[in-house]
Hints:
The complex is a heterodimer.
Chain A: H1 2-15, H2 22-29, H3 32-44, H4 58-79, H5 83-86, H6 88-107, H7 109-142, H8 149-159, H9 161-169, H10 174-178, H11 181-186, H12 188-195, H13 197-217, H14 225-239, H15 243-271, H16 280-308, H17 313-335, H18 343-349
Helix pairs in contact in A: 3-14, 3-15, 4-15, 4-16, 4-17, 6-17, 7-8, 7-9, 7-14, 7-17, 8-13, 9-14, 13-14, 14-15, 15-16, 16-17
Chain B: H1 7-33, H2 43-52, H3 57-70, H4 76-90, H5 93-109, H6 116-126, H7 133-149, H8 154-166, H9 170-183, H10 188-199
Helix pairs in contact in B: 2-3, 3-4, 4-5, 4-6, 5-6, 6-7, 6-8, 7-8, 8-9, 9-10
Amino acid sequence: MSVEHGQNRLGTTLIGRSFVHPAFDYMLIGGGLSLVVAAIVWIMASPGDAFLVNAALLPFFILLSNSAHFAASTVRLYTKPDSLKMLPFLTMAFPLIAIALLTLCLFQAGRWGPFLQALYLTWSPFHYAAQAYGLAVMYGFRSGCQLNPNDKRLLWWVCQIPFFHTFIYGLEGGLRWLVSRETLDSLVVINWLDQHHSAITVVAFLVPLISFVKVWRSSSGPLPLISMLAVVSNSIWWFVLTPLNAFVYATIFHGIQYLAIVIIFHVKDQMSRPDNKHRVVYHVVCFYGMSLLLGYGLFQCLPFAYVFAGFGLLESALLVTATINIHHFIVDAYIWRLKQGDSNRRVVETSLSAPI
Amino acid sequence: MNIRRVYPSLFAIGVVTFFTLLAVGGYQSVRTKGSLPPVYLNYTKDIQTTISDRKDYPRAIHQLRLAVKLDHYGQRPKHFFELAKASFRAGDRQNQQYALRSLRQMVESGTIDDPRVYYYLSVALILQDKVDQSVAREAISLCRHTLRLTPDFAPAHSNCGVALIMLGETDQALMHFRTALRLDPTLEQAQQGMQYLEKVQPPSTDVLP
């Protein structure tokens, strides 16, 4: 009886405390759905087929997931309780600064544009890695795994592996931005890394597994499997798929993952307001609707404003995209903090008995 | 002076600026395209319009030079290809050589997944002022490489046909033009190639792939 009880408890600990339902959390937030799609892409993709989905439908997927997710961080910033008071620079001054910098860059698109592009492309994989880390820690925290500082540090470095991989091997940004191709070719370390890419890929997948065992055996206790799934799925996007597919699918699934978790946090905040009169569906539809509308405005309408001002559509569309990305990365670094007293902390600590 | 006091004013200016920009963007799109901005902003098509409708090659070259600097590397081979063609038409040898060198670098680095990159390089090669037999052979080899990866890619058949004419291998050229037209009956280069072989008249350089 006690063995059975112990096994049940271990099972529950490993599944972790989900926000909505284990299936929903594992597939959308953990990245399970992305692994299914990544497997299909990996099996089916031929050199001529860069994408799995119809090229005509791809922009709609990107709008519904990726564009909406970028806008969602801004919507969250302004709907999060007390954010104007707690983050005055970010909420009130930063948007105008971002617009001013974008406009300045457009005046010197040939000179500063590549820098802005390289910055955003270098930062992207780091941002994804940071999200995987944040999700892993958050589910651990919710599921009773009190990560000690050493384990937290270990998990952070493990989550950064895909970023380092993209930084070294990526064709855009990263090392290729900072160091000339000739210098890179002459570096012994880089040549060694190039020659041992397959081995490094295997090690990159073994390290998270070993780290999870290490954390389990430490005073922290076991992390739920969804934490490992979030870390591994991010690795798979960057290691298994071709660089072009990685950028497309990573952005779509990162967007889905982000939208799911940000909507959960928003709904929990709104439902806990004493004056709330609406149901969950209302808050979900409102938040996603606002994000979708803002996403469309940012990515589709804003470039045309610069076209009106005399800039080309090419530089307007590309530099607006780069600026929105960088703005999103910076906003995200602040709105997900789990400090004592922050509304995020309350959401993460919410018991299982109170699903959204 | 407490900087925080300025924040609300900056916020107000930021909000007004942002929503004005969105409104202006929507207006600009309706004014030029007759509808709100599309879900996919096809800036490549914008450059194509500059080339095909306006024949404004210097502007197209300027836009393409910017495109190869700013756009994602997956799009870059196409931009270099277009740059090679636009600078050929404009008689801009410097940019033509730059596009050719860049495409060659991409092929040699092996980092581009797109099999059309070999075809792009083959076109850039035969657009040069002097195309000797070795260059024509290289162009044919590149086209055949593209066709091994994407057998139904009509422009590669057509360009292969042009390079084969340069070597005097007209029977094989004819076969490639026929295949190209079977795959894409509207392909002008293949149509002109067929006409040339029928009348033994050189194809016009205005009809490029």
